[in-house]
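OP here, attaching both records as promised.
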Amino acid sequence: MYEAISLEQKFSLFSERFQPKVVARMNDYEFKIARAEGDFIWHSHPDTDETFLIIDGEMRIDFRDGSVSLKAGEMFVVPRGVEHKPFAASECRIMLIEPVGTVNTGDQPRGERTAPNGVEL
């Protein structure tokens, strides 16, 4: 059976922040959605780029040498190995596109901000 994926419906299934959920897979990539608010942690992904697509709200991604501000309908690809820290002043809904198994806290030790991997909605 063919069925469209409703991002609105998927977002209605959870409320926690910075805990990405898988909504689809394509080859070796996952499409994850997440709610973000406040500061995340400084981290990088040494082996992969990371795509942020803003579904609703606004987000800033800080880098050690600058930042990029994104609003709904915009996207940005953080190059592999580049240290970054997402920030949203108020709740922002995002989609992340990254290889299967990518840990949300990247190269940082696992801690309270590390989300379980592969959680599907």
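Record two, same layout:
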Amino acid sequence: MRMDAGWSRARFADARVARLATVDAGGRPHLVPFVFVLIGDDLYSAVDAKPKSSSRLRRLANIRANPAVSVLVDHYADDWSQLWWARADGIARVLDVTDTGAAVEALAERYSQYRDAPPPGPVIAISIHKWSGWAVSAPPVTGR
């Protein structure tokens, strides 16, 4: 069953990890898991110090070339009556280092790993223009 924007937004507020979908200038998709914080109707994520194959991340280049993105959170269970997903569609931008303070602080509040080692950036900011979701049935929303 289709779920409304409020339900979908609440699922994002509860989720610890999501998948970020970007598309490059040639139309090739790229999908990566990422951690994030939701502030209002904006999602923020920072490039952290975990080892990367390159410092030139494809997600950043893709956002600069095509800022339209989708972000997905979901729940799978062998009991398929518990399945659900929520998606946020928006416009992303890579923030200038001088604009990242509040986002990095919120990320550190949400993820203890960032308290001792704040992510050095850059920060991705996504302004959400559409929340959508689906569930087999209307599961309860927890937390917040």
